[in-house]
Batch of 2 targets.
Target 1
Amino acid sequence: MSLGVAVIGTGVMGAEHARVLREETPGAHLVGVYDADAARARAAAAGTVVFPDPHSLIASDRVDAIVVSSPDATHATLSRTCIELGKPVLCEKPLASSAAEALTVVEAEIAHGRRLIQVGYMRRFDRGYQEMKRVREAGGIGQPVLLHNIHRNARAPEWFTGQMSITNSFVHEIDISRWLLGSEMTSVQIAAGPNEDPLMITMQTEKGEIVSTEIFMNATYGYHVHAELIGREGTVALGPPSFTITNRNGAGGVSYPENWVPRFQDAYRRQMSQWVKAASGGTATGASAWDGYVASAIAEQVTEALVSRRATTLNYGRRPAFYA
Ligand SMILES: NC(=O)c1ccc[n+]([C@@H]2O[C@H](COP(=O)([O-])OP(=O)(O)OC[C@H]3O[C@@H](n4cnc5c(N)ncnc54)[C@H](O)[C@@H]3O)[C@@H](O)[C@H]2O)c1
């Protein structure tokens, strides 16, 4: 039976999720959408239902599962409403706009007694990151000691602050670093360039591994995400982000996309397929509500470290048995 899915929020991300559901997701179909902007909703609905509000969408008998891709501030409330009605959710990152609010989703899910929330940390479905994790787990590089992450955007608006680059961009590095290493983070130090761009963030894990991340929002040449994992017996890194190499005007090389949508298109598609399988009765494979809470809790504490410029111990509690 095909899973009926509806999308709340059809901006850049939600329109892409709706398209992936319509065109590239076996086992599911798009029932309809809701967006505060009716014209956007109509465009993304592509002939399916435009719901008058998010609550009628969530409650509809035709809707088995929900994608939440509206602004951050709406995520926790919508996720809790879906939990109340027992419907699976793929919620865009971050799970909530604060760690305390994210924890309310975790608590609601535990009280409900069944895992319903997956957070859209889609890098877990990127083939390159999956290969890095497979190599580490197979012992291919020996004991990991260092993970270097690079997260560069072509450009950000002038009003974009260092704090925003932590809560919008660095949250992805938090989640993928925990997932790649299978380690929890215990401390952080941060250095900031002029106008807080770039940021250089160094975390240390419970096992002593070092996780360094460059966040540079105005790198100008394109959107570039890179990671290299260093072990005692070797290293493994993401390959180039393009399938081809272009030669022109006496120089050659790979091309970089303008933003995350083309770079992670394959990961968004694979994330959707796996989530549909899990929501149809399979096993969840993506980031849980707990992982979503941890990313938000670490981001909040890194933001405080940006203000204080002090080395900071990270505290976010232990994983509940429910998420084992
Ligand atoms: N996983 C990723 O790689 C990734 C990348 C970018 C953004 N995001 C996340 O996806 C979410 C959406 O980001 P975006 O870039 O698509 O933003 P966007 O501004 O393009 O789209 C947001 C949409 O939500 C609509 N909206 C506003 N208030 C609403 C409400 N109360 N209910 C329903 N819809 C409402 C807006 O009209 C707009 O169409 C954000 O939470 C963002 O953090 C994730």
Target 2
Amino acid sequence: MLRITVDGTAYEVEEGLTLLQALDDLGVLMKGVDIPHYCWHPKLSIDGSCRMCQVEVEGVPKLQIACDTPVRDGMVVHTGNERVRKAREGVMELMLVNHPLDCPICDQAGECKLQDYAFDYGQMHTRTREPRRALKKRVDLGATIVFDQERCILCRRCVRFCREIPGTSELAITQRGDRSTVETFPGKPLENDYSMNVADICPVGALTTRDFRFKVRVWFLEEVPGICTGCSRGCNVHVGVADDQVRRYTPRRNDEVNDTWLCDYGRMTYQEIGAPDRISEPAVRGDAGQLVGTTLEQAVECAAQLMRTAVEKEGPGVVAALASAHATNEDLAALRGLLAALGSETHGVPIVTGPADALLIRPEKAANAEGARVAGFGEPGLLLDKIRGGGVRVLIVLGHDIIHEQFLGSPEALAALDGVILLDTHRSRLEQVAHVVIPARHLAEKGGTVTNFEGRVQAVPAALEPAFEAVAEAQVLARIASALDLSISDESERKRETD
Ligand code: SF4
Ligand code: SF4
Ligand code: FES
């Protein structure tokens, strides 16, 4: 370890790092030690092009760029003295010579580094009279990203991202001097599974996602920590909430899980939360064979009655459960607790699989596949055999992955059961055979813990309330247990302690 002193404070840092990397590793960069930077990004190669991160290093005659200056033992650094300040003001003046005066109509306003640093280092008046350069506005770089060439400060973060992270290299800087701009190659749009990350890392309003641009001003957003539910990686996200709706997911840095990235598919799964096909009302199957809306209390009583009748007639072994790999560990513990209290050992979990890559995307398409396994839920094959053989009369189902083509393909195999009790977030064909349907909350609406494919248990709070009456599956299951005069608290408590 080396000892360095920054603005009078001594730090111990690892050898071989640059000053910005060392301060970032210490967790003090922009959190106590403010060194403005545009082109440097903790997960990309060093570019050293913006010159905004200049600092004074004692014993070195010229100012140094902190992003590309290696730390050395005994180094003494000043990050905010008058000399440094003047240099940054000069950099900002040059950057703003050609930048449009667009902030009021720019979608990045409120989370723009150029805007932030202009407050700290900008001049009140321009010293140039020449017209600002006119470049192309609203350029479609691909299906997901819109580009405003005039706003680009040529930090090359987006170019390096495409080259170094997905490895697709769609973007390049073309032309020279004040005609330089970012372009795609002819006939090769920005098109990769991680394309929308370029909008996150663009420090200005040059790159915006087609999905979010001009939908809501960012200062109206409340950013709540969340977990993407698209696969078993469990990427950390900021859930952006405005007007009781989720408006976007953006990456939340976690170097152990997703660095600072999200895949495009996972990013867009926020749309599931406010989707029009959410199940919003409890329902029970009426005498005419149709599902009829009812209250949660009546749905719970109806579910309990189906289970009570089956147990009285044929014993607890005929009640079974299909868990969901989308449910939280707390929901799964409640389901195990209910089954244990009932005396049934018949259960399983369907986990849908799909394409994967070596970067983030995992084959299991649910956030809590590992949590379901740890909770004791195995492959659903034996349970499905038992259903086909007539050994199950009542089935509790969390979610509808069981009718995915990788499992049943259709709900018909469940049609002969005396009772199908469905707790689910979204409408599906499974409702055709359900006797009781109870709306469930999305992870963003209930919070809780999920376990990613590496066994990392991650906790998130609820980000918003659902637009309709719904409680978490664990609470529904507890109410069903209560209606049956059973207690599942011990199992839930044991699970919490294990976590
Ligand atoms: S588009 Fe954004 S990220 Fe790309 S070079 Fe320009 S300012 Fe940097
Ligand atoms: S890799 Fe998986 S967890 Fe991460 S954003 Fe994509 S779908 Fe979500
Ligand atoms: S951040 Fe150091 S030169 Fe750009």
